[in-house]
Amino acid sequence: MNAPQTPETLHAPHTNAAWHQRRLAATPRGVGVFGDFFIDRAKNAELWDIEGRRFIDFAGGIAVLNTGHVHPKVQAAIAAQLQRFTHSCYQVVPYAEYVSLAERINAIVPIDGPVKTAFFSTGAEAIENAMKIARAATGRSGIVAFGGAFHGRSLFAVSLTGKVQPYKAGFGPFPPEVYHVPFPVSADSFEDAKKAMAHLFKADIEPSRVAAIVFEPVQGEGGFNPILPAAVQWLRELCDAHGILLIADEVQTGFARTGRMFAMEHFGVRPDLMTLAKSMAGGTTLSAVCGRAAVMDGPAPGGLGGTYAGHPLAVAAAHAVLDVMEEEGLCARAQRLGDQLIATLIARRAARQCIGDVRGLGAMVACEFVDPKTGAPDAETTKRVQMAALRRGLLLLTCGVNANVIRFLFPLTIEDAVFNEGLAVFDAALAEVAA
Prior knowledge:
Keywords: Aminotransferase, Pyridoxal phosphate, Transferase
Structural class: alpha/beta
Cofactor: pyridoxal 5'-phosphate
Family: Belongs to the class-III pyridoxal-phosphate-dependent aminotransferase family.
Distance between the termini: 52 Å
Strand content: 15-25%
Protein name: 4-aminobutyrate--2-oxoglutarate transaminase
Number of domains: 2
Radius of gyration: 22 Å
Helix content: 25-40%
Number of helices: 14
Strand order of the largest sheet: 4-12-11-10-7-5-6
GO molecular function: 4-aminobutyrate:2-oxoglutarate transaminase activity; identical protein binding; pyridoxal phosphate binding
């Protein structure tokens, strides 16, 4: 029998190394963890581990912290709600803040109105429910997604995800009638996508049985690939021609990251449904599906929801996040910081031939690492740069189907001095790897 845990052993001070060993013994390997240190506290774009070491956070909890760690207004909103009540389950005893947040979201999403919104807890839940809504509203079953996409880890969401390792390996079979076509990021890949879609409709499923096409305006895990603007218009026209719903997954792109409140605003095309999460609620668990009212009303009462869906603390945080984004002009700030970062990366590329493509929309920016001789994706160098930065106290995330992309997800509230310090650390990491 295992020894019982006492308050002393549960909370006794330990080194990072000691907690790392406890983690390996207590939690499964399937929950992959990047850091070998444990967070103690954080503020805006900085965090400190349990041994007192400081890190600059260019990861943002994977795009969750557009308003930074522990923003005072978000913190105050959660604290105030904590004094009132923490849970009732909205489907049992509703609360006004859920409704007023839905009204605020309905007013700002780029969807032709009237619009309705339902809240959930995670991005994967939002995607799962968007698929349910699309099927219920259309009476159809087929779903089309794109290669390189990431839509979550739950079974339906991972079936939409277009990357095998580590998300799909060992978890099949997956739900039927989910299809993938190439993601259009260039003129050539756009032609490939159109040919693949035409072949799909001839060989695998007739368009009259397709409920929805779902895409990320900028692929996140897939490599920060912005969709070709002409392809968004093509998708809209294709959906209109066949009665298919167009779903924009803005879980990672939403809430000012791309220089607009939502990435779809860059394309002048309105989807039928949108999924939202991550930076929506300042680090608390909240997601949403919003869309045209007639579509959202497709499921019968009781078909949507969840015990914790639209949790009161997260709803309070989301109201504060929307206030902060407006008051602090975070869309404009995202564009300014993104422009500065892209200019910096392009300048470094001239001296560092291992840097390949530099791309992004607003502050959703990434750079590829390639073999200077062949131009082939170089995952090893990417990892070396990431780890060299980490040793210097800078958190960076990798992504891409070939694992050769570094993405930058700093809080949009980051102080200029800390942002510039982070770029200097990245430069030092590049220099170490080049040497």
